[in-house]
C-alpha cells in the first residue's frame, strides 16, 4: 500500500505494427507450452526459479495486498511425503469421489492415481493463497480478491517458467490440506496449486489435444 505516485516505469509506446509483431511472436512461443507428466531429474539452478517467482510476484492484486506465497521444494524426503499424501487423495478421487462424468472427461488424457512426477521432477512449487495476514499490532488484516489475485500470479509464474525453457504441470489433488501440514504454513494460507517444474524426460510424449479457435473464445460488441 502507498500514497505515493510515480511516473509509469519504462513505458514506451510502440507502433501498431510493432505491437502486432510482439503479440504474434509471444503467441507463437506460448502456444508451444504443454503440460508434461514425465520429467527428468536434471538440476535447475535456484537463480532461475527465483527470477520466475519474482515475475509471478509482479502480478496485479486486489489493493496490492499480494496475497500469495510460493514454497520451492527440492528436498527428496519432502517430495516423497507430498507424493504419498497426494496419491492417497487421488486414490479416493479415482475410486469414485470424482463421479463418473468427471472421470470420463479425464480418460482421454490417460491420468490415474499414480503421481511419480512428484518425486522425479527436480522442483515442486507449492502456491498458497493468503486469506489474511497478521500485522505488527497482531491484528488480522483481510485480503480482498485473494483467489483471483493468486490465480493471476500463478499464470505469470507458468509463463515465466515456460519462457525460461522449463516445462510444468499444474497438479491439484483435492483436498490439499496436507500441503499446509507438510510445509508448516500458517493458518491464514490455503493451498492453491502444486506446480511441478523441470525438464521433460527423454522421448516424452503428450496428449494430442487442440485448443479452441479465436472465434470460440472471443466475441465482440
Strand content: 15-25%
The rough form would be described as globular
Total helical elements:
8
Tell me the structural class.
alpha+beta
Annotation, overall tally of beta strands = 6
Identify low-pLDDT runs: none
Rg over C-alpha atoms, rounded to the nearest angstrom? 20 Å
Distance between the termini: 36 Å
The main sheet orders its strands as 1-2-6-5
The CATH superfamily bears the name NADH Oxidase
The biggest beta sheet reads: 4 strands, antiparallel
Protein model, in words:
- This protein has a single domain (34-205), classed as NADH Oxidase (3-Layer(aba) Sandwich), CATH 3.40.109.
- Strand 3 (132-134) and strand 4 (140-142) form a beta hairpin.
- The protein has helices at residues 16-30, 46-57, 76-97, 100-106, 117-120, 146-164, 177-182, 214-217; strands at 68-73, 123-130, 132-134, 140-142, 167-171, 189-198.
- It starts with 15 loop residues before the first helix and ends with a helix.
- The chain is built from eight helices and six strands, in the order ααβαααβββαβαβα.
- The chain is globular and about 55 Å long.
- Helix 2 (46-57) runs antiparallel to helix 6 (146-164).
- The protein has 221 residues and is an alpha+beta fold.
- The longest helix has 22 residues, at 76-97.
- It has a four-stranded antiparallel beta sheet. It has a two-stranded antiparallel sheet with strand order 3-4.
Amino acid at each position: 500500500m502507498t500514497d505515493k505516485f510515480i511516473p509509469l516505469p519504462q513505458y514506451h509506446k510502440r507502433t501498431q505494427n510493432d505491437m502486432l509483431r510482439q503479440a504474434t511472436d509471444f503467441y507463437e512461443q506460448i502456444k508451444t507450452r504443454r503440460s508434461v507428466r514425465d520429467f527428468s531429474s536434471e538440476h535447475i539452478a535456484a537463480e532461475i526459479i527465483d527470477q520466475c517467482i519474482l515475475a509471478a510476484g509482479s502480478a496485479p492484486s486486489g489493493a496490492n495486498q499480494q496475497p500469495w506465497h510460493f514454497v520451492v521444494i527440492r528436498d527428496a524426503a519432502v517430495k516423497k511425503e507430498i507424493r504419498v499424501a497426494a496419491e492417497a487423495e487421488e486414490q479416493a478421487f479415482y475410486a469414485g469421489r470424482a463421479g463418473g462424468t468427471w472421470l470420463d472427461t479425464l480418460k482421454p488424457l490417460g491420468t490415474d492415481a499414480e503421481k511419480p512426477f512428484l518425486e522425479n521432477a527436480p522442483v515442486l512449487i507449492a502456491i498458497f493463497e493468503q486469506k489474511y495476514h497478521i500485522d505488527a499490532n497482531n491484528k488480522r488484516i483481510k485480503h480482498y480478491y485473494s483467489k483471483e489475485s493468486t490465480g493471476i500470479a500463478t499464470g505469470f509464474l507458468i509463463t515465466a517458467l515456460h519462457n525460461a525453457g522449463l516445462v510444468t504441470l499444474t497438479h491439484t489433488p483435492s483436498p490439499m490440506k496436507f500441503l499446509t501440514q507438510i510445509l508448516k504454513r500458517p493458518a491464514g494460507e490455503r493451498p492453491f496449486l502444486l506446480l511441478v517444474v523441470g525438464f521433460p524426460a527423454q522421448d516424452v510424449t503428450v496428449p494430442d489435444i487442440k485448443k479452441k479457435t479465436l472465434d470460440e473464445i472471443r466475441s465482440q460488441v
